[in-house]
Amino acid sequence: MNIHTKFHGEQEINKDDIIHFPSGIPGFLDEKEFYILPLEGTDLFVLQSVKTPELAFIVTDPFVLFPQYEFELPEEALGKLGIQTDKDVAIFAILTVREPFQDTTANLQAPIVINQTKKLGKQVILGQTPYQTRHKIMTPQEQGER
Description:
Layout: E1 2-5, E2 9-12, E3 19-20, E4 33-38, E5 44-49, E6 56-60, H1 62-65, H2 75-81, E7 89-96, E8 105-115, E9 120-123, E10 135-136, H3 140-145
Antiparallel strand pairs: 1-2, 3-4, 4-5, 5-6, 6-7, 7-8, 8-9, 8-10
């Protein structure tokens, strides 16, 4: 199956790898199907809407950028996603890419949680958490190294 994408032009994808978001994503409730495309040469991915080419989120594994990041998935999310084991789960943080890039932030308060086995996804908004929607992905020390 071919889809049109925001960053990669037309792409051939495996229909079996489409991730279904039964409730959509907050702000995009009608968008139910997404596909994950790698951004070559980076730790970043594109969460691309299958239906709307202009709708794509830059995402990354938050544990790479924030090794101390941890949270408990609410029971409601575990049930809706049919998660049985940790091996089923992939977690992504949506990035807000800014200019200059070192000002880019990650949303750790509302991770994208995917059951890789069942191809089900949900953006989970964490309550009672120290995490916010805008965590800088680079410290001032890292900015000087780049």
